[in-house]
């Protein structure tokens, strides 16, 4: 039996909020922040719900490094 995704509750809350608010992300910022906090608590890959947030974080780090003149790490 597989373990329950640790951030599934937050992911469901985001979906509910988006549906209620006509998919306006700005109205659901609190839920998005809670999801980011949950994802930060677990190792990468532990929560399938966090995969998009992990990608977002990698992109943010890459942009920050590029804007500071630091070349991105090889992939």
Description:
The chain is an all-alpha fold. Helix content is 57%, strand content 0%. It is built from three helices and no strands. It has helices at residues 8-20, 29-41, 51-67. Helix 1 (8-20) packs antiparallel against helix 2 (29-41). The longest helix is centred in the C-terminal third of the chain and has 17 residues, at 51-67. It is flat and about 40 Å long. It starts with 7 loop residues before the first helix and ends in an 8-residue tail after the last helix. The relative contact order is 0.14. The model has no long low-confidence stretch (mean pLDDT 85).
Describe the main β-sheet briefly: none
**Shape type:** flat
| CA-based gyration radius | 15 Å
Q: What percent strand?
A: under 5%
- Kindly report how far apart the N and C termini lie: 34 Å
Structural class: mainly alpha
Provide the low-confidence segments as ranges.
none
Average per-residue pLDDT, rounded, comes to: 85
Brief write-up:
By secondary structure, the protein is mostly helical. Helix content is 57%, strand content 0%.
Sequence-ordered SSE layout with sheet pairings:
Layout: H1 8-20, H2 29-41, H3 51-67
Protein traits:
75 residues; mainly alpha; 0% strand
